[in-house]
Specification:
This protein has 254 residues and is an alpha/beta fold. The chain is built from 9 helices and 7 strands. The structure holds S-adenosylmethionine. The site of S-adenosylmethionine (SAM) has 17 residues, from loops.
């Protein structure tokens, strides 16, 4: 299937869009003064570094990612920061003993997992009782364009949720995973984002790439791709481009 829908540059761009949501997610951990907080699938580690600034001075933030390029960048950026560590690891198993971790965060990662329930159970295993767990996920099925080519847009949505992304409906399943693992106090927030230029949509969501891949993978015909993308460009030229997507935040306590 197709290549990844992110790289370090994509994560930096999308950070500009999501920065308020990210900062709000750090506040669940700001009363933690000792112990370790984990950010799973931390990418190049910017959230790890920012989170480390707001936790107590004896607390440490550990970024985990299975991509050495991401972990190397995190280590480089954090080389002078004492309460940050990066570990190259898969999401399962996690390299921690039972009930040893004081808080857990994971953003835009559950969508990539082949066995998400197993990973959520693993997070439950390593968290201390009473510790917070925060998940941010992209609801790819909510991606909508202001376009009359609705059938093409539906097929692009199907390409994303059914083929491109391992767990394309992850955002809709989060509360179910948490209930199954017996987390408590589960809360859900939906955050809609609206992009009003094609340039933004391409920077933050890689729209042209997703439509091109949908055509390459026979989810849409080449003429449908051309009609759809030309209509988006025309809407953009005329000042009425609009694209929206929801981010889901789920919080809970072990
Ligand atoms: C879309 S990026 C999100 C990065 C970061 N959380 C952020 O919001 O900027 C997904 C990250 O999860 C990592 N990842 C995906 N599957 C993983 C797995 N099974 N184990 C560990 N890391 C994983 C990828 O390498 C990538 O860095």
């Amino acid at each position: 299937m197709s290549e990844k829908h992110y790289d370090i540059n994509y994560l930096q761009n999308s950070r500009r869009l999501l920065v308020n949501l990210k900062e709000a997610s750090y506040t669940y951990f700001n009363n933690i003064n000792t112990g370790s907080i984990v950010d799973l699938g931390c990418g190049a580690g910017k959230d790890v570094i920012e989170l480390a600034k707001i936790v107590g001075k004896d607390a440490k933030v550990i970024g985990i990612d299975h991509d050495p390029v991401m972990v190397n960048q995190g280590n480089e950026d954090a080389k002078n920061i004492s309460n940050v560590e990066f570990i190259l690891s898969e999401a399962y198993p996690l390299p921690f003993a039972d009930a040893t971790i004081a808080g857990f965060r994971t953003e835009r990662v559950v969508q990539h997992l082949k066995e998400p329930q197993k990973v959520v159970d693993e997070i439950y295993r390593i968290l201390k009782p009473g510790s917070p767990f925060v998940i941010i996920e992209t609801d790819w099925h909510s991606l909508t364009f202001y376009t009359p080519f609705v059938e093409v847009q539906k097929k692009i949505n199907s390409y994303l949720t059914d083929a491109k992304i391992n767990n394309g409906f992850a955002a809709r399943k989060l509360t179910g995973y948490l209930k199954h693992s017996e987390f408590n106090d589960i809360k859900l927030e939906i955050h809609p984002f609206v992009l009003s230029t094609l340039d933004e949509a391409n920077q933050y969501l890689w729209v042209e790439k997703m439509a091109t891949e949908a055509a390459e993978n026979d989810y849409i015909a080449n003429n449908e791709y051309k009609q759809f993308y030309t209509a988006l460009q025309q809407a953009d030229d005329e000042g009425y481009f609009a694209c929206s997507i929801n981010l889901v935040v789920v919080t809970c306590i072990k």
